[in-house]
Each structure stands twice: as structure tokens, then as C-alpha cells.
Amino acid sequence: MNFIGIIPVRYHSTRFPGKPLALINEKPMIQRVYENISSKLENIWVATDNEQIFNTVENFGGKVVMTSSMHQSGTDRCAEAARIIKHEKFDVIINVQGDEPFVKSNQIELLKSCFREDVEIATLIKHIETEEELFNPNRPKVVIDNDNNALYFSRSPIPFFRGKEKSEWLNENKYWTHIGMYAYKADVLQKITNLKQGKLEMAESLEQLRWLENGFKIKTAVSDYQSIGIDTPEDLEYALQLIRNKTVF
Fold this sequence. Notes:
Elements: E1 3-8, E2 23-24, E3 27-28, H1 29-37, E4 44-48, H2 51-59, E5 63-66, H3 74-84, E6 92-95, H4 105-113, E7 121-127, H5 131-134, E8 141-144, E9 150-154, H6 169-172, E10 176-185, H7 186-192, H8 199-204, H9 208-213, E11 218-222, H10 233-244
Parallel strand pairs: 1-4, 1-6, 4-5, 7-11
Antiparallel strand pairs: 2-3, 6-10, 7-10, 8-9, 8-10
């Protein structure tokens, strides 16, 4: 099985324009992401719509491809990049978020391990340990079947625990949060990006529901680590403070 990593990034972000170029310990964020996964992936590409990001990646020796500025998601950008670099040999594409500079290489290994079976799409989940996370709509939750396939994703806590106070839910049931890293079989990636949005996706604003609604299976693997996403300048300052305190590296 041949794996390829694609890091989709764009320059224009409403809350933090140009964030892939933001410096973290004198390295652009995109370089830090690239290097963090390089021990587990020999073939890595950045997919962008911006010339400055393109040049930055080339300058640190990375591989990069220019893609459309019209994509609505990182999945769509990965699909276009895969079509452009089809001369490369790969069976599975791993989508790594360009705004998570503390992603760990063992998370890549977890995604790769899912494809020892006949899997279409894989993603990561983590055990929820606090009420704040369980009831936070910005932390999507997931329920899984006995084979670790995702049954449903929601911004609401699932399952609802009838007959128990919400403060008791974590003691009565194991809840999972979704970590937004994906791996897809190459042909499956092209198929899912041609699907029309369904009612579930539009209701929850979670693109993976489109795939489930159309019959695709999503295998999950359990990670004990939740990376820190950088969505705002304040997030960046928080991350830098963690580095200064040697909480993350």
C-alpha cells in the first residue's frame, strides 16, 4: 500500500489571513506541519491557492502544487491535488490540516494502520474526558459500531443518555470526539468530492455526514492526543506560550 500526504492550505482566512505563513519558533507554520509528518510519510505535498505559500514551501525544500481558490473544503483541495500529481504512485491519500502545527507523527501511523483491512475512508477519534468538551458544539462527537466504523457525527453529545443528569453522562458511557484528520483510498476521494450536499451535512455543517449519507464507510482509530488548531492570532499566541512553557514542542 502506497501512501501520500497532502496538506491543503489557503491564504485567505476570515479570522487569520495568511496563517500558514505565521512564524512558530522562526519557522512558517506550514513548514512545521510538513516536518512533523515527514518521519511517517516519504511523499508529502502541499496544496495551496497562493503564490507566497507556494514559494515558501519550495524554499524549505517541500513539494507543492497550485490548486483552485474556489474550493469549499480541504477535502476538495486534496482531490484536485491528487488529480494533478497522478504521475506519483499512491493508493491512499492522507489529509493533514495545515493549521495544526503540533500534529504527531504517530497519528499518521494510526491512519495508515486502518488500511490493513479493506477500508474506504479512515479518521481519528479520542476519548472525551471533560463535560466542557462533551457539550462544546465546536468539538464534533462520533458514535461507532463494534468494528470501529463511524455510525454518525454530531455537534451534539451522542448518544443522549436518557434518565441521567448531564453531569453523570461521562460516568455512564464512553463518548468520543472526532479529530479532523482523514485518509482516503484514491478513487474514493474523487467519488466523495463529486457528491451533492445532503440534509445531514447542511444541518450539522460536517462534511463527513455527506459520505455516510451516501453509503461510504468511515473506519476510526483511537488517538490519545488532540492537536492544537490555529484559527486566530490569539490561538497562535496561546500556542507560542505553550512552547515557551515547554508544554508542546
